[in-house]
Amino acid sequence: MEAQLLHLLNENRDNPIVADCLELISRPDGVRDSGSMVGHLEMIRSAYAMQAQRDAELNGGEVEGFDDLLSALKASSDLSVKLHPLEFISHWYVVFTDESTSRLHGILKSPKNNIASNDSARSYEG
User: Fold this and answer.
1) 108, 64 in Cβ contact below 8 A?
2) By the 8 A CB rule, do 96 and 82 touch?
3) Residue 26 CB: number of other CB atoms within 10 A?
4) pLDDT tens digits, residue range 40-71?
5) What is the number of other CB atoms lying within 10 angstroms of the CB of residue 125?
6) What are 3-54's pLDDT values in tens digits?
7) Are 69 and 105 spatial neighbours (Cβ–Cβ below 8 Å)?
8) Which residues make beta-bridge pairs with 81?
9) How far apart (Å, rounded) are the C-alpha atoms in residues 68 and 49?
10) Residue 92, beta-bridge partner list
11) CA 95 to CA 86: how far, in whole Å?
């Protein structure tokens, strides 16, 4: 995991979703970090609005943090956003920052559905 991302998460640990994410990062089974990607802010916002709705339907619950993220992205003057997907055994987190990873736009937390969680638990190595 990028040191700069970890530093930014620690600076924002008063956010309950960030605090949950940091707790999971500190566990021995850790996190599977898929790297980061940068995308156009409007495209990311549209795609994640659809993704959040689909995830809520599949996982039987709301994606935590979406309303706050959407508000932050609407208020942002940035043209692009950097995404940092983090996978844990039972949850996915996606951290949204500016391109330099110096400002947190928001964080999403969603449970994996039961089938994915069971498969992940069997194949997860770190």
Assistant:
1) yes
2) yes
3) 9
4) 999 998 887 787 677 667 766 677 998 899 88
5) 6
6) 999 999 999 999 999 999 999 999 988 789 889 999 999 999 888 778 767 7
7) yes
8) 39
9) 12
10) 87, 110
11) 8
- Whole-angstrom distance, CA of residue 126 vs CA of residue 124: 6
Tokens of 80: 């692009």
Q: What is the mean pLDDT of the chain?
A: 84
Give the CA distances from residue 123 to residues 28, 44, 45, 88, 101, in Å, rounded to whole numbers and listed in that order: 16, 29, 31, 12, 30
Residue 27, phi-psi category: left (phi > 0), alpha (psi -120 to 50), beta (remainder): beta
Q: In this structure, what are the phi and psi dihedrals at residue 27, rounded to the nearest 5 degrees? A: -75, 155
Q: Which residues contact 93 (CB under 8 A, 6 or more apart)?
A: 17, 21, 24, 85, 86, 107, 108, 109
Ramachandran bin of 101, using left for φ above 0, alpha for ψ from -120 to 50, beta for the remaining angles: left
Residue 95 phi/psi, 5-degree rounding, is -100, 130
**Residues 78, 98 contacting (CB under 8 angstroms):** yes
Inter-axis angle of helices 66-75 and 41-59, nearest 10: 170
- Domain-wise residue ranges, the chain: 3-121
